[in-house]
Amino acid sequence: MLRKIRISNYALIDELSIEFTNGLTIITGETGAGKSILLGAMQLLLGERADTGVLRESGRKCIVEGTFSTDGFDLSDFFEDNNLDFEQACIVRREINPAGKSRAFINDTPVNLAQLKGLAAQLIDIHSQHDSLLLETVQFQTRILDAFAGSQHLFAQYNQAYQQWKTEKKLLEALKQEEARSAAEHDFLQFQYQELADMQLQANESVLLEEEFNLLEHSTEILKQVGRAEALLDGEQESILTNLRQLVQVLGPVGAYTRNGTEIIERVRAAGIELRDLLGELQLLRENTATDPQRHETVIARLDRINHLLGKHRLQSSDELLQLQHQLSERLQNQSLQGESIRQKEISTEALFQLLLQLASALHKKRVEASSDFCKQVKNLLKKLGMPDAMLEVKIGALEEPAQGGMDQITFLFSANKGSGAKEIQKVASGGELSRLMLVLKKLVARSIALPTIIFDEIDTGVSGLLADAMGEILKEMANDMQVIVITHLPQIASKANEHLKVVKTTKLGATFTDVIRLEPKERVSEIAGMLSGRELSGEAISNAEILLGIRKK
After folding, report:
1. Which tops the pLDDT comparison, 240 or 391?
2. Span 495-548, pLDDT tens digits
3. CB 13 within 8 A of CB 65
4. Tens digit of pLDDT for each residue in 180-215?
5. Integer Cα distance of 67 and 24 in angstroms
6. Do 120 and 188 have their domain in common?
7. What is the DSSP string of 421-446?
8. Of 92, 94, 110, 114, which is closest to residue 102 (Cα–Cα)?
């Protein structure tokens, strides 16, 4: 629950620190004193957007900081999910700098607005006069009924399964669309793949074929020149190898008489060995070179086919064609697996759908079981608030398929007067009736929703006299289960407070400030008397104030 709020440089507030207690806290003040300013500062802690227009002094930043006690409320999961330090005393801070940039912190750790709102929704609820319009929405009516029925956990389970089902449906649809696209291109991919597969390409084939083509294309010339080279090396007439053998014999005596003659002779012999090896290579080349016109045509045709495919696919080598063939094979294989993927996704989607039906059925059952008692208790509380003939009906229709919140179409039908048929709330309820109905609903679900703090602003619209006293009693009863803070202009409600705060406007050195003071018992008498009679405090007004406060008996 809210323990303390500190506000700096916000609108008419310079520096303000307010401590809050358990039970019912009432906030009063004259019109224009700044009650709405205080509420606006609190709403910043809930993640409301703000700009530099809220800065009292444009040159320094605005800070709103709230200290909340989380003892008894299981919020550890939120802190763990968001990687935040968990402490029983949780400090939420919002800062707006002169440039208009907003920052939010939870226990001094920077967070985004979504995280701030996620925590705030579990700490505090601010109900303003305009929030009564929520009663007209199906989502709010559904949440109220589920809270009364105690089915929030079941509701959360359903919504989690619903989101999973929607995700699975989306993925299934994407798979089917992909399958349709794949089917359209399957024949083309298959043709491309088969065209390459039929070629039975080998690694580095285009290079090897080019080499073979050159041999076949120039075989006659190669054989002619190789024959001449062989004759030069080792022909019948004087050849290079014959001359080298003679050279060894000639140099024999030189080797015996000179210092390096032996080395020279060995070099000549080595040259002979190298030339005989070269002769072997030439003989092998001659043997491997044939004038084969048929093979020549085959190689030319093969190269033409490969070059055609290279140009078609804009590639550079036969190895790249082999790589493309592998890629096409994989794509075709993946297409063949799509059908199985779709079947598996259909099975998982159907399983989630059946789970949704089960959870929706359980939700429906709890809603139906709770609706009768819910309507009865609403009627009894409205009777206390001066609406003896008011009645609420819960209409539960069926949706054709799962939706957010279940498969029920929940509608609250309301009638404020005897003999009037119950109709949709927005068609029959006045502003004052909406305020009272909203209070009744929040009273009924206060314990179920386990919310630490609720703030009511102008919940007393259209209410006065005995009805205001009854409303105050309901608010006081709510404060037994949670911290309740009420901004009111009615003395009957103000008199029920465990703690009474007053918003005041002061002027210092030509500047206007908003401040909040805690009223002592005597000050409360004067404040409530003023609310009863205006600025002139009559003895009768003081007496009535004391009666309201229980100081004096009637």
Report:
1. 391
2. 999 999 999 998 888 888 999 999 999 999 999 998 888 767 778 888 988 888
3. no
4. 776 667 677 777 878 888 888 888 878 887 776 777
5. 18
6. no
7. PPEEHHHH--HHHHHHHHHHHHHHHH
8. 94
Encoded tokens for 528: 């409530």
Closest CA to 302 of 220, 216, 223, 219: 216
Closest-CA residue to 382 (of 342, 345, 333, 425): 425
- Give which of 515, 471, 520, 477 is closest to 492, Cα–Cα: 471
The distance from CA 135 to its chain's CA centroid, rounded to whole angstroms, is 28
Other C-beta atoms within 10 Å of 406: how many? 26
Helix (H/G/I), strand (E/B), else coil: 175: helix
195 and 314 in a single domain? The answer is yes
Q: Looking at the domain assignment, is residue 368 inside a domain?
A: no
Cα–Cα dist 126/456, whole Å: 6
The answer to whether residues 26 and 109 belong to one domain is yes
Categorise residue 510: left if φ over 0, alpha if ψ from -120 to 50, beta otherwise. Answer: left
In a domain, 317, yes or no: yes
Side-chain half-sphere CA neighbours of 195 within 13 A: 16
Selection from 176, 87, 165, 147 nearest residue 359 by Cα: 165
Residues 169/349, Cβ–Cβ less than 8 Å: yes
Is position 10 within any domain? yes
Query: In sequence order, what are the beta bridge partners of 87?
Result: none
